[in-house]
Design a protein that fits this description.
Elements (H helix, E strand, L loop, with lengths): L6 E10 L7 E9 L11 H11 L7 E6 L2 E2 L8
Antiparallel strand pairs: 1-2, 1-3, 3-4
């Protein structure tokens, strides 16, 4: 049974400049294992930046993203 108290995705004070009018900013977001959410109000570029941050294809300029308790900045390769 999954640990419902631990967040599968944890975002804190993240900022990423992607050369738009304003940088992507996410103050706080927790998504637990098995939970489904919908995020609204992102344009296509911001949505792509968020996906890249969550998959560790890029790292935030500020803040912290953890996937299953592991900071994305520690992920060195796809394996």
């Amino acid at each position: 049974m999954p640990d419902l108290s631990a967040a599968a995705i944890r975002i804190r004070d993240v900022q990423k400049d992607y050369r738009a009018l304003r940088p992507l900013r996410v103050r706080e977001l927790d998504v637990r294992e098995g939970e489904s959410i919908a995020l609204l109000g992102f344009d296509r570029a911001a949505a792509e930046v968020l996906v890249n941050l969550l998959t560790a294809a890029t790292v935030p300029d500020a803040g912290r993203i953890e996937i299953f308790g592991r900071p994305t900045v520690d992920i060195q390769d796809a394996d």
